[in-house]
Specification:
The protein has 288 residues and is α/β, with parallel strands linked by helices. The protein has ten helices and twelve strands. The structure holds adenosine-5'-triphosphate (ATP) and magnesium ion.
Amino acid sequence: MLFKKKSSVIDISHVPPALDADEAARIGYEHDRTLSKHAFYEGEHPMVRIEHLNKAFDDNVVLRDINLNVWPGEIVVVLGPSGSGKSTMLRCINLLETPTAGHILVNDQEITDASKTNVHKLREKLGMVFQSFNLFPHLTALENVMLGQTKVLKKSKEEARIEAIKQLEAVGLGDRIDYTPSQLSGGQQQRVAIARAVAMHPDVLLFDEPTSALDPELVRGVLDVMKDLAYNGGMTMIVVTHEMGFAREAADRVVFMEDGVVAEQGLPEEVFDHPKNPRTADFLGHIK
Ligand SMILES: Nc1ncnc2c1ncn2[C@@H]1O[C@H](COP(=O)(O)OP(=O)(O)OP(=O)(O)O)[C@@H](O)[C@H]1O
Ligand SMILES: [Mg+2]
């Protein structure tokens, strides 16, 4: 099957089967060890493995042959111009979009094999925080954080309540648990959304521009919560953001996407201070 994009054509019929888990871990380690601050240990396997991911909407090719590993506890920040495919990649990882070709594996389980994947089980492992919070407006902060736990994880109300209070306290909202979203600031709502995602104890948290809908003075509180998760929570995170300060401070690796491909990736200081790809340099020049 051929897809055209501008002058390029990709042929997705040649995508090979997913690699064997041990082989993928070895190859991934060799590839990534100089590109990330992650403390690799011998024999470690990636938490998320993306191989030859392609995504097209009709004949518009949006992702082309993406290959990326995310290691347990690693913080990967994804940057790139509007339309480069960042959101689409995140949405493929939790199967909000169906990849056109390629493989995504979480803990060596292929999630892109529809016959073997229980999408609901998968989403328990992959928490997502959106730009627009997506809280239920008629529920309090506490109820928002309890809901997934009781409905999806089948926890008792009491267990869910204890966990919800713990996570709301962790994001600094212990005194706001009975407020509804309309009674909270945007930053507070986003912190509720983060608490809700963390309360599900996912393997990986995906963030899609979590601060870009917020007034500038509210951004810091949300970034502080994310940094705390990264440093103290040991959470594996893939974060699409234009917050360069966060990327410099918290990222183990920065991935620059351009026109549906990973154009460059590496240590934050390398990518920011010595970008190898002129497109990366150009992009960073515009947002600094
Ligand atoms: N559901 C969809 N149907 C058709 N095209 C889509 C759909 N979702 C995304 N696209 C297209 O895919 C391309 C990449 O979009 P995507 O949202 O992944 O970009 P992005 O890098 O997240 O951009 P931004 O920084 O603006 O959020 C765009 O050309 C967009 O129009
Ligand atoms: Mg986007």
